[in-house]
Amino acid sequence: DLVFAIGPRINAAGRIGHASEAARLLLETDEKKLEELSLAIEEKNQERRDLDKETTEEALKILRSEKNFAENKSTLVFSENWHKGVVGIVASRLIEQVYRPTIVLTKSNGLWTGSARSVRGFDVHEAIDDCATDLEQFGGHKYAAGMSLKEEKLESFKKHFEESVSKRITEEKLTPKLNVDLELQLSDLTNELYKWLKALRPFGPSNLSPQFMTRNLVDAGGTRHVGDGTHLKLEVKSKSQDPNPITINGIAFGFGEWQEKLKSGVEFDLVYALEMNEWKGRKSLQLMVKDIKLSSAHT
């Protein structure tokens, strides 16, 4: 709850409004005022979600309409209408769709201002440093950076950033990779396993959540779209003749386009993290899907 519920709402207060709103919430002791502050921050969080989704869709549309979209090694998109508080999130979202170093810019106080995000193994700060003469200021680290520049330098910066990334990056670094810790069968996914995994927490950059793979799965009948249609609620089982096969549910964010294919009966492999879902007082194991791939028999 702290990471997935409270954290994003406190973060949204600073991105969309002012961080002092979150500080007031954490320091307040009066229950009535706490409720008022909580509702205000929840509104900010919903606004952040809407802006995130809307800006990402607009940025993807701009990106895919560019003349050299397929050949470019970097992404740089901009609009003066985007909210400064979500450009970093949007840069990360774009990398999920188009895997390459990415910068998203918007107008703020007369300058183009924005955020960069990188792909595994590539130092985006070094690439931006190559373009320093185009910038008013910049800073950051290997995987994330911020910068600002004048209007007349925008096209020059975009050109120089693409040149720098093209010079430095390799095809290997432009290929997304998933680390799989262990291949399991659905019968291996037990409450006892989850208890041991839970003991390894907290997970973070230096202690990543274990990721597993299970091959040759099929839809168990309950796979469907959820949310705005871009996500899937999965119900899967192993391909077997067992009249009572093991089935398990999962969530696959951003894999909505796979629904029709999975419902057709093809076999597929999943990479996932194991979580515990709680709904109306009932707990059940759930797959947090990281990737879907057709099984070798279908490729």
Feature tags:
five-stranded mixed beta sheet; 8 helices; Diaminopimelate Epimerase, Chain A, domain 1; globular; OB fold (Dihydrolipoamide Acetyltransferase, E2P); 12 strands; 2 domains; 299 residues; 27% strand; five-stranded mixed β-barrel; alpha+beta
Question: Brief description of this entry?
Answer:
The chain is α+β, with helices and mostly antiparallel strands.
* Strand residue content: 25-35%
* Arrangement of strands in the largest sheet: 1-2-3-5-4
User: Could you please say which CATH topology of the largest domain applies here?
Assistant: Diaminopimelate Epimerase, Chain A, domain 1
Number of domains: 2
Number of helices: 8
Q: What does the largest sheet look like?
A: 5 strands, mixed
Architecture of the largest domain, according to CATH? Roll
SSE string: HHHEHEEHEEHEHEEEEHEE
Tell me the distance between the termini.
40 Å
Using DSSP, what is the number of strands?
12
Please identify the top-level CATH class of the largest domain: Alpha Beta
Plain-language structure description:
It is built from 8 helices and 12 strands. It has 299 residues and is α+β, with helices and mostly antiparallel strands. It has a 5-stranded mixed sheet with strand order 1-2-3-5-4, with helices on both faces. Strands 7-9-10-12-11 form a 5-stranded mixed β-barrel. Strand 9 (231-238) and strand 10 form a beta hairpin. The longest helix is centred in the N-terminal third of the chain and has 34 residues, at 31-64. It is globular, with a radius of gyration of 22 Å.
